[in-house]
Amino acid sequence: MKSINRISASDKAKKLLVELKAKHGDLMLYQAGGCCEGTQPQCFRKGEYYLRYKDVCIGEIDNVEFWVDKDLFEYWKYAHFELDVIEAIGAGGFSLEVPLGKTFKVNYRIFSQEEVNQLDEVKINL
Questions:
Q1: Is the pTM of this model over 0.70?
Q2: Which of 41, 61, 106, 126 is deepest in the core (most CB within 10 A)?
Q3: Which residues touch 90 (CB under 8 Å, ≥6 apart)?
Q4: Distances 22 to 8, 17, 75, 117 between C-alpha atoms, Å
């Protein structure tokens, strides 16, 4: 039985990740449960954002890990995340795409019960 990915990306988001990797090297994505940038995903050079205990990696997009706050994961663990990008500047400007006038965002949809039974395992930061 094929497992179901928890994360995917639009073509626009994948193209932006390629552009950011060319400029900055290996990347990581992190989505917090609030504060500063709200729940907007942030893009950092890999290792330049320090994960908290029990933060969750829900998958990868073209070798870029997508991490979420442990509490946000509990709230959204039955939802598929689709990384997208819009032409706008995010709330705080910490993310690497902001100088390009772009902002990552996530579109969500709830998994069916059949999908829930086939979900990929997650990686927990311990």
A1: yes
A2: 41
A3: 37, 40, 98, 103, 104
A4: 21, 9, 34, 37
